[in-house]
Amino acid sequence: MSKIIVTGGAGFIGSHTVVELYRAGFEPIIIDDFSNSEQSVIKGIENTIGDSVSWYPADCNNQQVMETIFAREKDITGVIHFAAFKAVGESVQQPIKYYRNNINSLLVIIEMMLKYNVPNLVFSSSCTVYGQPEKLPVNENSPILPAQSPYGNTKQLCENILAQIGLAGKPLKSVALRYFNPVGAHPSGNIGELPIGTPGNLIPFITQTVAGHRPQLTVFGNDYNTSDGTCVRDYIHVVDLAKAHVKALELLDRTSLSPFYDVFNVGTGAGNTVLEVIKTFEMVTGRKVNYKIGPRRPGDIEQIYAEVDKARDVLRWQSSLTLRDALKDAWNWQQKLKEKAEQTAT
């Protein structure tokens, strides 16, 4: 069984990917400092797969600790690197924090992989690398325009680092997956999005508002050049996204070239406005969302959605779950959190 290190494996996308790795026959090993997740997620993963999972509470920026982990774990065949700060708004306010963490953690991972002969790396990138696209949908050959936020710029820089590592002839095979907007939760309700503090993403803010944890949702701007004036995003179910990482590892396994580097869009190929998401949530759950229209948020782009032909043809992956599925699962997850809180209180 191939060992795969999953940095940030207790996070939203990471936890779902750990489940899909296990089900595909890999042995996932989680590294997470729990700065944006909770240790309870480990139990949620184990309940979902019906087995225990290996994990280390560690910061990927700590080279000494990472050295210990790589030396201890034998026969690692790949790394999926999620561990990064990811809130666009926060990155605008705290750019140094984002540059230091997101770039340095990747450099440490690459150094460890080269030292311990770990061949395959799947990097968690983002559609933010495209900036504000001039033409939609975006494909992997679309221009990489100036990033609209420090977060987006860190993803651009990390992709450049991976490409340069390849050009330098280092024995590393890597794939960057450019995510669009991951949403939803595992259908079991055992794991889902668990933001620390105020959510930076739309869906958990919707579910927390409807659950009564937030007084009101603010929609950031309704004067964009879209069908209803609100931003357009390509919302992909997190389980579909998790499966794309398994496909990326399988691609790297069957690739004989080394060094190797490639990029893939991971989305649905369609976009929805913020107001469409809210209305769909209300239709799926029968619950009203208390929201207001506010000013635009710095760093937000107007609209973006993916062309996904390359992922289908080369990665052998495509999305199968709908926005309705994602919103239903996200609400189920929020209700499960409420049940757990009530059980803890009693």
Automatic annotation (TrEMBL):
<dbReference type="Pfam" id="PF16363">
    <property type="entry name" value="GDP_Man_Dehyd"/>
</dbReference>
<comment type="pathway">
    <text>Carbohydrate metabolism; galactose metabolism.</text>
</comment>
<feature type="domain" description="NAD(P)-binding">
    <location>
        <begin position="5"/>
        <end position="329"/>
    </location>
</feature>
<dbReference type="InterPro" id="IPR016040">
    <property type="entry name" value="NAD(P)-bd_dom"/>
</dbReference>
<dbReference type="GO" id="GO:0003978">
    <property type="term" value="F:UDP-glucose 4-epimerase activity"/>
</dbReference>
<dbReference type="InterPro" id="IPR005886">
    <property type="entry name" value="UDP_G4E"/>
</dbReference>
<keyword id="KW-0119">Carbohydrate metabolism</keyword>
<protein>
    <recommendedName>
        <fullName>UDP-glucose 4-epimerase</fullName>
        <ecNumber>5.1.3.2</ecNumber>
    </recommendedName>
</protein>
<dbReference type="InterPro" id="IPR036291">
    <property type="entry name" value="NAD(P)-bd_dom_sf"/>
</dbReference>
<comment type="subunit">
    <text>Homodimer.</text>
</comment>
<keyword id="KW-0520">NAD</keyword>
<keyword id="KW-0413">Isomerase</keyword>
<comment type="similarity">
    <text>Belongs to the NAD(P)-dependent epimerase/dehydratase family.</text>
</comment>
